[in-house]
User: What shape does this take?
Amino acid sequence: MTPETQSLLRAELANLIAGYFFLFIGLIAFSIAAIRRRGGVRILVWIGIWSIIFGANMLVQSPVIIASLPVSLEPARSLWAVAGSYLTIVAAALAFLELTLGTLRRFLKLLLVVDVAVAVAGIGAFLISGRANTFIRYNQMLAVIALVTLLATVSVPSLSRRFLILSHHRVLTIGTFIFAAEALWVNLGRPFDINVPSIYSSLGFAVLLLSFGYVALDMILANERRLLAIDSELQIARQLQFSILPAGPPKIASLGIAAAYEPMTAVAGDFYEFIPIDEQRVGFLVADVSGHGVPAALIASMIKVAIQSVNGCASEPSEVLRRLGSILNNNLQGQFVSAAYLWIDTSSRRALYSAAGHPPLLRWNKETGTLMRIDSNGMIFGVMPELEYPVCSIPLVPGDRFLLYTDGVTESEDVAGEQFGDRKLEQIVRESQAVPASELLTRMVAGLRAWQPASLAQQDDITLIVIDVL
Assistant: This one.
């Protein structure tokens, strides 16, 4: 290394360290964003890009780097130097955009469009004419507008409360003022030939960048704390929802009963209930609320309350559904509920069935070896009030089997988007005629799991009730 190179290196050492520091900060931001992989990390990505562009721009303009690069790379270095000068404000605007709301967010989007247009024009002008600073004045004006906007927003409490998503922005305010003070010092010093060392610009930018990083991490951690609180509340809601479901099947003479309930999320829109009157008579209700999650689960809870009003007419499926519909229709708020109700009286050896827009009841007849689909449907709840529901009378024959289910069973999809369908469901019922009700449910759930691999999320709530006539 020549004495001239050593002298140049000593003079540029601080700038080289600053450039590599900003590259390192950018990589750290990317790493944190990759590790967290949750909502809200996008700001870290923009901060990382912003830091890397600024650091790389410092390095490619350093005399040490210029002197060490081969001549063949000079065009690429020059292009990066020009592109970095224009794109720094674009990355900064994208990072700032992630902190804003309302009118300020719309203003920043407009400013971002102008930033990109100026950057494209400036880089294009360099490629065509070789002039690096054709549009740089416009780029600097946009940077000043963005900085003034940020200063005004963080300085005025009413503006920060209205337009920033931050609960605490003191660190960002301090960082912005330090950077603005440094920029003002540099620009005011130029007319008076005051030479401000470039390291001060790097320090000012570092303070601004790190203040952005601090508020970004604070946002992410606050969001994760909120998600953890929501998860905890959903677990409580899940426990409460399972508490309103039957603890187990009722003991009814000459019947074997089993039920399976597989919610799609922590809480579900499916609901089922047994309405035993005595040891020989029982009603079975299955309901499916449109949609998923908390809204559907709240309506499912309403059905539990509404069931209390139908005990007196449990032997009349049409009246059960009519009363449920009259209670629910006024409270569904645009959602819909399908339901099916099966009444079984083992003393009279007869069953009655009615439904409201629900998948058909399946009946396996042991004597004939046939599987019947029983449709006795009226209008789904939430469309029209006070409707009549047709009732189908079914004789009970020893060896018969009934299956009530929700459409989450037949509409489960495989990786190709093909639904499980009625055919596969009926195939499992036919092949399992000799096994008890609980074993049939086990086979059905296993069949659904095999059809829908673990890599795919469950697409709907699943409820199954099997009733064997012994």
Summary: The mean pLDDT is 86.
